[in-house]
Amino acid sequence: MAAEDIKTLRATYSAFQRSEGEELPEHVAHDIEWNLPEAVPWGGTHHGPAGIQAFLEIFHEHVEGSWADPDEFLDAGDRVVVLGRMRGRSKAHGTGFEVAFAHVWGLTDGVPSSMRSYFDTAPVMAALRGEEPS
What we know:
Layout: H1 3-17, H2 24-27, E1 33-36, E2 44-47, H3 48-62, E3 63-64, E4 69-75, E5 79-90, E6 96-108, E7 111-119, H4 121-128
Parallel strand pairs: 1-7
Antiparallel strand pairs: 1-2, 3-5, 4-5, 5-6, 6-7
């Protein structure tokens, strides 16, 4: 991956942090495949900018906070791995959570075309139920 690919992903995360869904088409492929753990309400596979917008809406129905705060962008050959933290508070209960994540991105011609998200869902689901994460 080139430095330009990492720059593109930084801009993508910035758009997500602002929750500006209207910016998504300019940051991702029209047929992007977005995979998140099934255990969370916004999990599963989402396709295209409309699927990502739907994911963001479901996330923000349940959570007050940003979806992802990236810390490191790692060149992994034909992929970029982003390590960071997901922090939030349950809108229903006010219970907070913080979990580390790893996002594995694929880019096609310099445009994000796939993303697979890995994180511990137990603290997130506990917070959504109003339980203090252990």
